[in-house]
Design goal:
single chain, about 200 residues, mainly alpha, two-stranded parallel sheet, about 35% helix, globular
Length: about 200
């Protein structure tokens, strides 16, 4: 059974090749659709370059189905795109309130993951292969020389959900409330109760 598309495309994505990835979170929650989703290939459409917004929707999909390997690989992939500043992620202007609220939480998640690395001297524009001396220079660089990631302004304009959106773990377990220590702080302000994702990497 194919995944159902949204009732209409998001305004910001109408002219982009990304609309086939935009789906309601509720659609993901049937077991058949979860299995279908996990068999998909999360790559840009043929003949089109990847973009921060396309990647943001991939991250959304992986988090919704609690695919730890998928979302961790996506976060690391985003980090390696040196020209993709978190603050420059465009507003998706998604027409679905639940999906829009979920998407608005993701830049803060990326910011936290990347800034933790920057504190350790693992800056995004560092060469892939470094000598021990270069690595030490990055690690001991003065704080004033470090450029930290920031959230885009549009995330502050997105309205929280009126009703709590409960997101299950990969094995179907739900938390009962935000006082659960396993709940993610990145989604609480949007009234989305989801398991805290593992976002940090080296």
């Amino acid at each position: 059974m194919p995944l159902a598309p949204p009732s209409r495309p998001s305004p910001r994505l109408t002219a982009r090749p990304h609309t086939f990835l935009i789906m309601r979170a509720a659609v993901f929650l049937s077991r058949r659709n979860l299995e279908e989703l996990r068999r998909r290939r999360y790559m840009p459409p043929e003949h089109h370059s990847d973009t921060p917004l396309f990647c943001l929707y991939r991250l959304y999909e992986f988090l919704v189905v609690d695919d730890v390997t998928g979302y961790r690989n996506t976060i690391e992939y985003f980090c390696k795109q040196r020209t993709w500043a978190v603050r420059d992620i465009p507003d998706p202007e998604d027409h679905d309130p639940s999906r829009y609220a979920f998407l608005a939480c993701l830049p803060a998640l990326l910011k936290s993951a990347f800034n933790e690395r920057i504190k350790l001297g693992l800056v995004r524009d560092a060469p892939a292969i470094m000598s021990p001396e270069q690595a030490e220079a990055y690690r001991t660089a003065p704080e004033s020389s470090k450029t930290y990631e920031e959230e885009p302004s549009w995330t502050k304009r997105v309205e929280p959900l009126g009703q709590t959106l409960f997101m299950p773990s990969h094995d179907g377990e739900f938390m009962q409330g935000f006082d659960d220590p396993r709940a993610s702080r990145f989604f609480k302000h949007m009234n989305i109760l989801i398991w805290g994702p593992h976002i940090h990497f080296t």
